[in-house]
Amino acid sequence: MSSSTIDNQLSIAIDDLPNHEGQSFGPSAWQQLTQSDVSAYAEVSGDHNPIHVDPVAAADSPFGQTIAHGYLTLSRVVPLMAEVFTVTGFKTGVNYGLNHLRFPAPVPVDSSIRLSGTLQKVEEIAGGYQLIVEVVFEVEDNPKPACVAELVLRYYK
């Protein structure tokens, strides 16, 4: 079998993907989301909702402080997943989309998130494989996940 697991990392050769359906990986390292990260994301996305960028207004919200944008949390999927899940031996890999996305809990500014996942399904497609991967973003010290997403990834030989 052409795969390896180093600590919590899963590395799979492209031709061995079908043998790893159902396998879990992670968690990644913790990564802090700061007010600077949130404010920079607000500038790029154009989402200046006070719950994200105005500490005074956010203090009077149900969350009591500013929180990260849900899509900012999701945008951390690439670096966090790269720590714990890799496919080798492919020529091209693409993010094909999402089947499911939820943000069950907020990410308070200055808290940390990490990612775990499961390779749910591997389907052969012309020239490669399509993967359905569930990822879960935890928030440190919160039992409820911040983000649960079902990614659709394609890897071509």
Word description of this protein:
The chain has one domain (3-156): Hotdog Thioesterase (Thiol Ester Dehydrase, Chain A, Roll), CATH 3.10.129. The protein contains five helices and nine strands. The chain has helices at residues 35-45, 50-53, 55-59, 70-75, 77-84; strands at 3-6, 9-13, 24-25, 31-32, 85-88, 92-102, 112-125, 128-139, 142-156. Strand 7 (112-125) and strand 8 (128-139) form a beta hairpin. It is elongated and about 55 Å long. It starts with a strand and ends with a strand.
Short note summarizing the structure:
This protein has 157 residues and is of the alpha+beta class.
Descriptive terms for the model:
six-stranded antiparallel β-sheet; 157 residues; three-stranded mixed β-sheet; 5 helices; Thiol Ester Dehydrase, Chain A; disordered N terminus
* Corresponding CATH superfamily: Hotdog Thioesterase
Q: How many alpha or pi helices? A: 5
Low-confidence stretches: 1-6
Structural class: alpha+beta
Run of helices and strands: EEEEHHHHHEEEEE
Q: How is the biggest beta sheet arranged?
A: 6 strands, antiparallel
Text of the CATH class: Alpha Beta
InterPro entries: Fatty_acid_synthase (IPR003965), HotDog_dom_sf (IPR029069), MaoC-like_dom (IPR002539), NodN-like (IPR039375)
Organism: Enteractinococcus helveticum
Pfam families: MaoC_dehydratas
Family: Belongs to the enoyl-CoA hydratase/isomerase family.
